[in-house]
Amino acid sequence: QVQLVESGGGLVQAGASLRLSCVASGRTALISATGWYRQAPGKQRDLVATITSGGRTNYSDSVKGRATISRDNAKNTVYLQMNSLKPEDTAVYLCAARYYGVATYHLWGQGTQVTVSS
Fold first, then answer.
1. CA-CA to 97 of 20 to 30 Å: which in 6, 53, 77, 84?
2. Taking Cα atoms as reference points, which of 112, 71, 66, 107 lies closest to residue 92?
3. In order along the chain (118 residues), what is the average pLDDT of each group of 10 residues?
């Protein structure tokens, strides 16, 4: 199994930056892709960004140009750098992963809260 632990959230003002981290442990060699999702109160869980084991990235339109997803394979860590944060970025940010051969993200962390004040 794989465990995912997020960190790096917090309360910031609009325009600030944050870097979120997702550390994977366990059978990490099985992971083909890792992603960040977010969920605001009363709203559905939305994709933020994903990165494959080969380094291919994908971003939602809502964060494109403001977010960068990256990975450090030696540390089994995926990062999400968020710049120019807006109040609408306020949400619980969750790390997700999927195994090779699995189409959907099926492994989830507990999440880290990001709150952006205006």
1. 84
2. 112
3. 96 98 96 97 96 96 97 96 98 98 96 97
**Nearest CA among 90, 78, 77, 92 for reference residue 16:** 90
Identity of the residue numbered 51: I
Q: Identify whether the C-beta of residue 104 lies closer than 8 Å to the C-beta of residue 43.
A: no
> Looking at residue 7, what is its pLDDT?
98
Nearest to 102 by CA among 53, 56, 47, 45: 53
Contact 22, 78 (CB under 8 A): yes
Distance CA 58, CA 73 (A): 18
pLDDT at 86: 97
